[in-house]
């Protein structure tokens, strides 16, 4: 989970690197995104509008109206993917990541999980949430998100996507999530098991808890394949989590790829100071392989 402990671990880890948080922050959001995913920043601009279409959309939910970024290939119908951002929410980095996925042939809905409190962007970069002001702003927004609310939101997103001309509603949908969004993919698959065929959690937090509504206990309700990419420092702190996930997947008869990556919590998010391009691309490739196989 992206909390004080993981941030402290990441700070210590970055002290051994030539390129640290201060240097990263100095680049600014647009520059850092362009550096971390060459060509992808341009993909979110008008330069590729012939290839993809991107719009900001509003989706009715039980608790109000959620704003989201919807991006998809400009022509044809495609399998849909619901993308849940990390703790800092929907912002430029996740628009770029969503566009990158759309260019691979998917209709991608990048959601604002904080819509109950404010429209996106809540923050412009992941680093902002660690400031005193950022934490003060986010804490009440995080508190407004409940497991039941997330499940209901997921159902609304699936239903909305099924009606879109760019979506092939005859095919299964997928969901990907980062940090806090990792757990939300589990709730998405359980909320609409007949629609969601695959989920991918990247350095997801809170996947295994003692609570009765723990995400891993939802596996029997799912019909989805799973990819769970675990950060090395998260695994060092909670080594039993991966085993509990494997046991739960086996008991539920779910196909699951659960792997610890040699990278820090946050390594897949392109504006994170600990972004690891090599390991992020490897995890991304595993997701695409699963989607190609499962979203039929």
From TrEMBL:
Q: Does the keyword DNA-binding apply?
A: no
- Write the lineage as a comma-separated list: Bacteria, Pseudomonadati, Pseudomonadota, Alphaproteobacteria, Sphingomonadales
Keyword Membrane among UniProt keywords: no
The alphabetical list of record keywords is: Hydrolase
Protein known as: Dienelactone hydrolase family protein
GO molecular function, one example? Answer: hydrolase activity
Organism (species): Sphingobium fluviale
Entry-linked InterPro entries = AB_hydrolase_fold, Dienelactn_hydro, Dienelactone_hydrolase-like
Where in this chain does the record put each Dienelactone hydrolase domain? 67-294
């Amino acid at each position: 989970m992206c909390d004080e402990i993981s941030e402290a671990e990441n700070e210590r880890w970055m002290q051994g690197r030539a390129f640290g948080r201060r240097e990263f922050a100095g680049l600014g959001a647009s520059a850092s995104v362009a550096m971390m995913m060459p060509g992808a920043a341009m993909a979110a601009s008008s330069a590729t509008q012939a290839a993809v279409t991107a719009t900001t959309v509003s989706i009715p939910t039980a608790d109000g109206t959620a704003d989201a970024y919807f991006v998809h290939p400009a022509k044809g119908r495609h399998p849909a993917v619901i993308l849940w951002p990390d703790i800092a929410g929907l912002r430029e980095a996740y628009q770029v990541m969503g566009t990158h996925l759309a260019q691979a042939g998917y209709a991608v809905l990048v959601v604002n999980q904080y819509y109950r409190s404010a429209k996106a962007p809540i923050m412009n970069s992941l680093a902002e949430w660690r400031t005193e002001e950022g934490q003060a702003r986010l804490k009440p927004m995080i508190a407004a998100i409940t497991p039941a609310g997330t499940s209901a939101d997921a159902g609304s997103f699936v239903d909305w996507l099924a009606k879109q001309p760019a979506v092939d509603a005859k095919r299964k949908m997928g969901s990907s999530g980062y940090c806090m969004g990792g757990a939300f993919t589990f709730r998405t698959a359980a909320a609409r098991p007949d629609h969601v065929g695959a989920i991918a959690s990247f350095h997801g937090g809170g996947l295994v808890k003692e609570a009765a509504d723990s995400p891993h206990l939802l596996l029997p309700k799912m019909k989805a394949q799973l990819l769970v990419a675990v950060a090395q420092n998260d695994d060092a702190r909670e080594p039993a989590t991966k085993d509990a996930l494997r046991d739960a997947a086996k008991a539920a008869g779910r196909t699951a790829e659960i792997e610890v990556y040699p990278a820090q919590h946050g390594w897949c998010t392109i504006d994170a100071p600990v972004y690891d391009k090599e390991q992020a691309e490897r995890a991304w490739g595993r997701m695409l392989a699963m989607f190609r196989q499962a979203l039929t």
